[in-house]
TrEMBL record:
Protein name: Endonuclease/exonuclease/phosphatase domain-containing protein
Organism: Anoplophora glabripennis (Asian longhorn beetle)
A matching Pfam family: Exo_endo_phos_2
InterPro entries on file: Endo/exonu/phosph_ase_sf, Endo/exonuclease/phosphatase
Molecular function GO terms recorded: catalytic activity
Listed SUPFAM superfamilies: DNase I-like (SSF56219)
Lineage per the UniProt record: Eukaryota, Metazoa, Ecdysozoa, Arthropoda, Hexapoda
Alphabetical list of PANTHER family matching this protein: ENDO/EXONUCLEASE/PHOSPHATASE DOMAIN-CONTAINING PROTEIN, ENDONUCLEASE_EXONUCLEASE_PHOSPHATASE DOMAIN-CONTAINING PROTEIN
Domain Endonuclease/exonuclease/phosphatase: 42-149
């Protein structure tokens, strides 16, 4: 799997180099800083392969967040973690939420993001400190075996 963040050409964005945190199968991550006249937002997109080591993933997510974290900047961490928050072991999910809450990031996806004939999982996540006035929509599409997750801040 690979990751990308796309932005319109008229937006003030710059790439943040987080390549040193990428370890094949365990974590792929990319990041941008988006500036407006009133705010700065770091957007990170990541992927963990289903066979990836969860400890390496946690350690490197912690590392990348330590690298980019600035208290007054908004953060949106999104991606396919291949960690089912609806069914995975409680301790694994608690570890992830605890780790990310240390950066004031809260989970906002509450509906299944991958549905097959026999399964319904929440493996595509968004963690953010922009929880007020935000809207999450999960919609079916014919593009992928995952549903589309839309995140809007009003």
């Amino acid at each position: 799997g690979g990751v990308a963040v796309y932005a319109r050409s008229n937006l003030d964005v710059r790439k943040i180099d987080v390549d040193k945190f990428c370890i094949d199968k365990h974590l792929k991550v990319c990041a941008i800083l988006w500036k407006t006249s009133t705010t700065e937002t770091i957007i990170l997109n990541c992927y963990r392969a289903p066979s990836g080591d969860i400890e390496i993933f946690f350690n490197n997510i912690f590392g990348v967040l330590n690298f980019v974290f600035v208290p007054h900047i908004n953060i949106v961490l999104t991606g396919d973690f291949n960690l089912d928050s609806s069914k995975q072991s409680r301790s694994m999910n608690e570890c992830l939420v605890d780790l990310l809450s240390g950066f004031n990031l809260m989970p906002v996806v509450r509906w299944p993001t991958r549905v097959t004939q026999g399964t319904s999982t929440i493996i595509d996540h968004i963690f953010t400190n922009l929880t007020e006035n935000s809207v999450i929509t999960v919609i079916d599409n014919d593009i992928s075996d995952h549903r589309t997750v839309l995140f809007q801040v009003n």
